[in-house]
Amino acid sequence: MKQTDKDIEISTMLVDWYKENQRDLPWRQTTDPYKIWISEIILQQTRVVQGLDYYYRFIDRFPTVDALAAASEEEVLKYWQGLGYYSRARNLHASAQYIMLHCGGIFPSSYETILSLKGIGEYTAAAIASFAWNMPYPVVDGNVYRVFSRLFALDTPIDTGKGKKEFYELANMLINPSNASMHNQAVMDFGALVCTPQAPSCTSCPFQHKCLAFAGGNVLDYPVKQHKTKSRNRYFNYFHIEWNDRTFLSRRDKSDIWKGLYEFPLIETGQSVNFTELSSLPDFKAIFGFQTPLDIMLVLNEKKHVLSHQVIYANFYKVRISNKDSALDKFIEINSSELDNYAISRLTHIYFDKLAESFAN
DNA sequence: AATCCGGGGCC
DNA sequence: GGCCCAGGATT
Fold this sequence. Notes:
By secondary structure, the chain is α+β, with helices and mostly antiparallel strands. It has helices at 5-21, 33-42, 48-61, 65-70, 73-80, 87-102, 111-116, 122-133, 142-151, 161-174, 180-193, 212-216, 275-279, 282-288, 346-360; strands at residues 232-242, 246-251, 262-263, 266-269, 294-306, 310-320, 332-335. It folds into three domains: 1-20 and 136-228, Endonuclease Iii, domain 2 (Orthogonal Bundle), CATH 1.10.1670; 31-120, Hypothetical protein, domain 2 (Endonuclease III, domain 1), CATH 1.10.340.30; 232-360, Nucleoside Triphosphate Pyrophosphohydrolase (Alpha-Beta Complex), CATH 3.90.79.
């Protein structure tokens, strides 16, 4: 389909709105593709307010591709700690090293090369290409789905191949090729500030008289999704082992949550278990060998930790041992004062908060 | 096409 | 409790 004057009119209205109402965000003060890249990865499935401080800290420590590539994956994960979706950090690091090795250390400026980098899909490639070089690639993110599905009352489910294709073609038709950067930022800010998921500001919306969903009185029915998220329960039993001033960690390395992060020795069970049941499991002996821990303290009991697709019920036991069984050799033994050097999950962080609290009381 | 990957804020 | 957020990779 060819672009029409009417299509450009929508872009013009969006950009006019944007010029008056845009958010002041640090990654908009630059056209450095590296900084834009970092901001876009941080903002994947992440609200601006949640990502802002991470962006400042990350850019401060890794101001260039070179600096990021030269760092260890561990340190990069440490700067990502608590933000979630940790493959973003690992891919960021791997791509920085790729750029040093294969692109002369210069962030690539061709859309196809950008798209080929780990952790960069259609959305992020379009965002970087348009924001850094004003290249005419349309962004299609959650805001775009919402704004355009409402404006045109499009009910194709957005989580299907057909829906993704339809919305991409629509976005491609609506973008003003000579003003791609501002157009893309405008749609997203409009979606984030006016055409919001709940309680959109229809009464003050400049598109109210054009919006087919508003005319139909069912704005909140858009965008249409096919799938519902379902969740499973998991039961984690952690042991914060104290052996004099030493403790033990392991690094998660399987295809599971928190890959690359550190944690205490863990027994995962199929259902909720108490300490007596736990201590009779083979996994228990695999951690402690033939000794019995002393001073067992249940610091967190059935702590509920909700993720997107699973709910974790976690027990954290603080236990003291008098001598070290060789069974513990498979763990990383560190001095307790070094714990802060390791990237940990939010759940483990919650444990430390609780521990500090119980000390204060 | 379906599922997985975090954490937080909102109603 | 369910939904969504400047999505992408894996199966």
